[in-house]
């Protein structure tokens, strides 16, 4: 079955998991048409992302007049469905996001429905339960293709009513959560009759891209943290934990990979605590740079306050690295005693104590933990296996 993917902004450097999922579906013989509302090409560096951008149909690139014209013609041909979709958009707009914005989504949905009809696409799959899922839901209401969507979190779980999550689940053919925790949160907002629609399909990695793990560095402890420098990632708390642990470990060093709105604040905190020689801020790195940073570390440390199931944890485990992480969302489904340390979220002292435990661990035991991490993530997150599960769900749609 030919399907289409719909994402708000695609591709993006942080959405490589979507690119891998599409590639795995296509390897298995399922043609995928890519829709995105807009492009992020100016920010792309990775050649694979740039190539993916060239394969993607960016809806807003058609121009407002073309979108409006196609939407008008579609609605004139489907007046009853257009009225029902308008009511649905109006109701969702009243709950959050604004009615005018949802009228714009309605026009975009009519454009997408028209394109799917032209391309012979019977099913639309959106990533994220935000505006891309809104457009998919309205496209179906307008008489377009059936739809499904993948929920990642935490954004969807922060504003489920404003996002009309219950309506999106109800009208969807099925809904994917990337972890059992994510499915549990969807159960909170779905009608009980819709619970069978809620399925778990993990995001995946490509195991063949990971060679033998690099030997663990000596000394340290050497840590790496990777992510957007934003409030939910908890990096300000990690700086506090480093200040607590540093006096006990003269060789302690953290490489912090990423960029974002809190970079200046984090840099100021590092300076204020006298940790300039203990913490290196690298800024954004491409996939090669991230793998080099992981190879130079003994463990990944993830201090997040809110997550879905972070790709960076999967990548660190695939690289044969233990993980120190906060016990939130889907993280405990992947990080277990044999592969790392789980600590309470928001507790700098607990993070510092986990660093102590890492420092006290013999090198051979750390290596064993890294190999256990690698085996666990390969068993649970092989992208071809997960894409096959998703393809089965597509095939079950009437």
From TrEMBL:
One of its GO terms (molecular function) is glycosyltransferase activity. Pfam families: Glyco_trans_1_4 (PF13692). Keywords: Glycosyltransferase, Transferase. The keyword Transferase applies. Belongs to the glycosyltransferase group 1 family. Glycosyltransferase 4 subfamily. This is Glycosyl transferase group 1.
């Amino acid at each position: 079955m030919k399907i289409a993917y719909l994402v708000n902004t695609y591709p993006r450097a942080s959405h490589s998991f979507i690119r891998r999922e599409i590639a795995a579906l296509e390897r298995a013989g399922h043609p995928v048409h890519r829709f995105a509302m807009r492009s992020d090409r100016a920010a792309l560096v990775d050649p694979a992302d740039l190539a993916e951008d060239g394969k993607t149909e960016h809806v807003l690139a058609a121009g407002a007049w073309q979108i409006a014209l196609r939407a008008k013609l579609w609605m004139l041909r489907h007046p009853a469905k257009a009225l029902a979709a308008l009511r649905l958009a109006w109701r969702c707009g009243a709950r959050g996001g604004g009615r005018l914005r949802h009228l714009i989504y309605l026009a975009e949905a009519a454009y997408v429905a028209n394109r799917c009809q032209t391309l012979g696409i019977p099913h639309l799959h959106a990533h994220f339960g935000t505006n891309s899922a809104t457009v998919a839901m309205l496209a179906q209401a307008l008489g377009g293709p059936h739809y499904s969507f993948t929920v990642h979190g935490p954004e969807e779980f922060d504003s489920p009513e404003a996002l009309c999550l219950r309506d999106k689940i109800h009208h969807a053919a099925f809904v994917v959560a990337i972890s059992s925790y994510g499915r549990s949160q969807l159960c909170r907002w779905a009608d009980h009759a819709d619970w069978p629609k809620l399925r778990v399909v993990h995001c995946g990695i490509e195991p063949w891209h990971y060679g033998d793990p690099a030997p663990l560095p000596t000394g340290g402890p050497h840590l790496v943290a990777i992510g957007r420098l934003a409030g939910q990632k908890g990096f300000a708390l990690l700086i506090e934990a480093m200040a607590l642990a540093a006096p006990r470990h003269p060789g302690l060093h953290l490489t912090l990979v990423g960029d974002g709105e809190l970079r200046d604040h984090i840099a100021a905190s590092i300076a204020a605590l006298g940790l300039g020689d203990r913490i290196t801020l690298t800024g954004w790195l491409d996939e090669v740079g991230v793998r080099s940073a992981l190879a130079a570390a003994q463990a990944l440390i993830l201090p997040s306050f809110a997550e879905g199931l972070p790709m960076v944890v999967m990548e660190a485990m695939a690289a044969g690295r233990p993980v120190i992480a906060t016990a939130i969302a889907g993280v405990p489904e992947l990080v277990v005693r044999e592969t790392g340390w789980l600590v309470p979220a928001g507790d700098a002292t607990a993070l510092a104590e986990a660093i102590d435990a890492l420092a006290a661990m013999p090198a051979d035991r750390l290596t064993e933990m890294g190999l256990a991490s690698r085996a666990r993530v390969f068993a649970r997150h092989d992208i071809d296996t997960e894409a096959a599960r998703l393809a089965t769900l597509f095939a079950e749609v009437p």
